[in-house]
Amino acid sequence: MSQDPLFAPLRLGQLTLKNRIVMPPMTRSRAAQPGDVATDLMATYYAQRASAGLIVSEGTQISPLGKGYAWTPGIYSAEQIAGWRKVTDAVHANGGAIVAQLWHVGRVTHPDNIGGAHPISASALRAEGVRVFVDSNGAPGFVETVTPRALSVDEIAAVVNEYRQAARNALEAGFDGIELHGANGYLINQFLDSESNARTDQYGGSLENRLRFLKEVVTAVGAEIGMDRVGVRLAPLTTLNGTVDANPEETYTAAAALLGQLGVVYVHIAEADWDDAPVMRREFKEALRAAYSGTLIYAGKYDAERARSALREGWADMIGFGRPFIANPDLPERIKLSLPWTAHDPATLFGGDAHGLTDYPKADGSAA
Ligand SMILES: Cc1cc2nc3c(=O)[nH]c(=O)nc-3n(C[C@H](O)[C@H](O)[C@H](O)COP(=O)(O)O)c2cc1C
Hints:
- With 368 residues, the chain is an alpha/beta fold.
- The chain starts with 9 loop residues before the first strand and ends in a 31-residue tail after the last helix.
- The chain is built from 11 helices and 14 strands.
- Helix 1 runs parallel beside helix 2, helix 3 runs parallel beside helix 6 and helix 7 runs parallel beside helix 8.
- An 8-stranded parallel barrel has the order 3-4-5-10-11-12-13-14, surrounded by 5 helices. A two-stranded antiparallel ribbon has the order 1-2. The protein has a two-stranded parallel ribbon with strand order 6-9.
- Bound molecules: flavin mononucleotide.
- The site of flavin mononucleotide has 23 residues, from strand 4 and helix 10.
- Flavin mononucleotide binds next to strand 4 and helix 10.
């Protein structure tokens, strides 16, 4: 058991993590309304899962315009910072480590979620057929996204500054660091992928130009809070929310190399989102490892054995278990002792109350 690679400690920047098991970011849509504020209930939920080596918070919008779905939390107001402080205190009290996933959705939203404003993106290209959850006028439901407008160069600088401020706010809220959400079709991803970026200025066209927004955001947040507190999540192959790259292995290997040069503390690869789980070739994973020498996290449909193999093969340093953490608050203990995993209830993933959030028991049946 002492040989289990999932339980080897790991140094991550200034943190010493107790194991290689990550609770990856998962939106649960239970922020207090109005104001999109993290709650005591959320503090309990995250604290219950503090035996993970690292928790990444659910996606957390950096500005009102960065919000894609009703009931998700933000980190731009004083009230939101205070809400998150309760979460981070509770996680730390239980011996855990937690970083904030900083989220700007770009075009993956609807005017109803952003105070009637027009969604923004790299380019005026619509996320075709993508629907987002709104809760306007007391009638919650899904609506299709609209065609966004392209950011001007000055507006890009303003958004970069919002990321910088949100990183500062995250430290003020007690987080151990931040993860930039560069995955799953949201704003950073919209700049990265060739088919969602039709710009003809310095932010589009060549690979170097498509990487520029990511580079500027990373540089800004790193200067603000220290690069040893900055991780980045990327989703090279998934096409969630309509972002597609013509040559993902080239694009994302270059992104990993850039993040290595900038010195971010980890890169977090999302291999799957729900059922969209394209197979990532082993050669691609080896190329990412060669391009980036920091900590590499992978998530997407892992079980304990696949996770151990990934660590032993050397292309991953930590493994995220998303859906398993929802219904198994003591997941590391279950992995260590080879105990069975409980299946989650899909009906309580998004929205609602404590049911399906904090009432999943430990393996022995006791409260988490
Ligand atoms: C309910 C739910 C919400 C999610 N929300 C986010 C999110 O806010 N940010 C993100 O980067 N990924 C999000 N994901 C993706 C997960 O982080 C993870 O990559 C995915 O679930 C695949 O891992 P798994 O097969 O272990 O569940 C979400 C997944 C689920 C199930």
